[in-house]
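PROTOCOL LOG
Step 1. Enter all chains and additional molecules of the complex.
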Amino acid sequence: AQKITQTQPGMFVQEKEAVTLDCTYDTSDPSYGLFWYKQPSSGEMIFLIYQGSYDQQNATEGRYSLNFQKARKSANLVISASQLGDSAMYFCAMREVVSGTDKLIFGTGTRLQVFP
Amino acid sequence: NAGVTQTPKFQVLKTGQSMTLQCAQDMNHEYMSWYRQDPGMGLRLIHYSVGAGITDQGEVPNGYNVSRSTTEDFPLRLLSAAPSQTSVYFCASSSPWGNPSPLHFGNGTRLTVT
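Step 2. Run joint prediction.
Step 3. Record the structure below.
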């Protein structure tokens, strides 16, 4: 069964500093995809970054990078040079296609607050 | 470029009433899904569809029905609303499983059942 775990309900970071948001996952399927989404207070879901299970390199998108450690089943999001606008909820998610199912499951999220 | 459109944005129901949350996408995505978001619980998958005529259950399907008669539309039906269904509902779509195929989300429907 799929499972996504985000153990940090809340994180604080000072502006311009880097922050790591943790995500671990559990799957027995070798082919899967990992996603991070941002949800600001306005409520929309914004796609940030993707990592495929077969990707050799860690994904990067601007200030976002994904620290993918396959053996540990972790996919942590690193935000460099934090900005006040980064304050939001962040969700890790995994998509897995197995046995005729195709489900994208989310973790419970981490609330990031960036202070000046 | 509308993307994923959900209607209504807000809805108040009384216990036992029925309603349909509408979802439409104009990106020709085969995959569509419904989530509910509750405080502290993240987004939980209700139902999903990998194409017209095909639907399957997610993590929390009880109390909800779906159908997929066209590629564009994926309505979510509450047959007899309960207070436990008070939540924010998101519809999402994507291309079929591949690389990277992220979900594109609608703006959500805030449902209150009294």
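Step 4. Note key features.
Chain A touches chain B through 23 residues (CB under 8 Å).
Chain A has no helices and twelve strands.
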